[in-house]
Predict the 3D structure of the following.
Amino acid sequence: MKKLLPISLLILLQSCQYFEKQVPNEKELLDQELKEINWNEVDEYPSVGDCEKLTDANQRKQCFFEFLTAEIQQKLNVDTLSVLFPKLDTIEVKVTVLPNASMQFEPQFPKDSVAYDTIKIDSILHARLIDFPKVNPAIKRGIPVKTQFVLPVIIKSE
């Protein structure tokens, strides 16, 4: 019995090595996780309250873009863009939705655009596109993220 106790203790201590797991390197895990993330797409697109009730992601995205385009057109139709620039029928606007739910608007002009006063159009755009309705930012892995997209906005001349 006295010999059995030391032998069993020795076997028990040796068997603990079989249960020891190798701890993965944190940097390797992080690198592997970062490679798996698709940084070009978001889990949820930005949205407004009216579009939140839709369950399909594509319908919600479409609803958001239609709302945004209509809101920008409505705010710009009040102004003198159509009077100052009668030949201007469409402006492409780069919209940036920041993680804090604020928005930035920047008109996009062709590189060779000299037909329009781009500075004047930019100032009118910034002056009119204030007090925008609340927009919920895009979500990536549960975190609000910055998104950018370009919307064609039709300027209606009446």
Summary: Helices lie at 4-19, 26-36, 57-77, 81-84, 118-128.
